[in-house]
Amino acid sequence: MLFDLHSHSTYSDGALTPTELIQRAELAGVDVLAITDHDTVAGITEIITDLDAKPDTTLQLLPGVELSSQWHGTGAHGMGVHIVGLNVQLDSSELQDALTRQQQARYDRAAIIADRLRKKGFPDLLPAVITAAGQGTIGRPHFAEQLVAIDAVKSSDEAFRRYLGAGKIGDIKNVWQALEDVVGWVRDAGGTAVLAHPDKYHLTHTKLRALVGDFKAAGGEAIEVVSGHQIAYKTKNLSDLCELNNLHASCGSDFHKPGQHWAEVGKHSTLPDSCRPVWDLW
Ligand SMILES: [Zn+2]
After folding, report:
1. What is the distance in A from the centroid of ligand 1 to the CA of 229?
2. Cβ-contact 193, 180 below 8 angstroms
3. Cβ distance 169 to 163 under 8 Å?
4. 67 C-alpha vs ligand 1 centroid, how far in Å?
5. Distance from the alpha carbon of residue 6 to the mean position of ligand 1, in angstroms
6. Which of 5, 28, 29, 276 has the largest CB neighbor count within 10 A?
């Protein structure tokens, strides 16, 4: 059985609709797919509730979500960490409330960026950015597109270099809910909390162990030992960490769009045999 338990659709920052994503996963031989859009379950809900939208497939869909959280507060040591919730109950009111909060946080951040750019003399870009994001997640790339559209800059690169990149006026950090709370939301919704791609936070080994410890103490049950196509020693390090903490292991491509061979749906590296897969919990 091939499990891909981390993927994105047009409902967040992915390029394919849920239907296209499912079809691509099926072609790649995926048996069980979790669509884990950022802070929304709208894509998977649409597929499950609207029979017209559901492609004819034998592939099993698992309701999922990827939630942003804050570890170690907002001070110098604070950082954003992603928690994947698998097998969540889509109609859970706790989850729906949590997702509304997360989306509000994203909207508030966009409004601050728009306001700062307006004070620089640009028109209010917020309405256009909201339209451009559609069902997806509003992000700085949408502001970059609009700055190009109004001829303020020549390219998206220039927009980041002058206005949106690190240290520039549009570089507004999102402040998310604490890791413990976010793990709690997943559990309240009957789901399994998974620490997403631990390798991507670029932590020292000591800090990574501290993160995994805090995650487990909060009720987290699994870590992504495999995220996309990854080199063997990373898999080994993460599976050791997993075993050391007596956690289950998850795997997924973190697919966003075609053409990224390191994150192609269904093409992620395999979980080591020594790991206890997260699906053993279900
Ligand atoms: Zn992701």
Report:
1. 14
2. no
3. yes
4. 9
5. 6
6. 5
Instruction: Give helix 205-217 / helix 179-188 axis angle, nearest 10°.
Output: 40
Per-residue CA distances from 210 to 160, 187, 217, 234 (Å): 33, 21, 10, 18
pLDDT in tens, 36-73: 999 999 999 988 877 666 677 889 999 999 999 999 87
The whole model's pTM is what?
0.90
169 Cα to the center of ligand 1, angstroms: 26
* Residue in the block written with tokens 């897969």: 277
pLDDT in tens, 134-155: 877 788 889 999 999 999 999 9
Q: Where are the domains of the chain?
A: 3-92+191-281
Measure 68 CA to ligand 1 centroid, in angstroms: 10
Tokens 């994150």: give the residue.
263
Q: Does domain 3-92+191-281 have CATH number 3.20.20.140?
A: yes
What the block records as the tokens of 145 is 């597109």
Question: Which distant-in-sequence residues (6+ apart) come within 8 Å of 62 by Cβ?
Answer: 5, 32, 33, 34, 86, 87
Ligand 1 center from residue 188 Cα (angstroms): 21
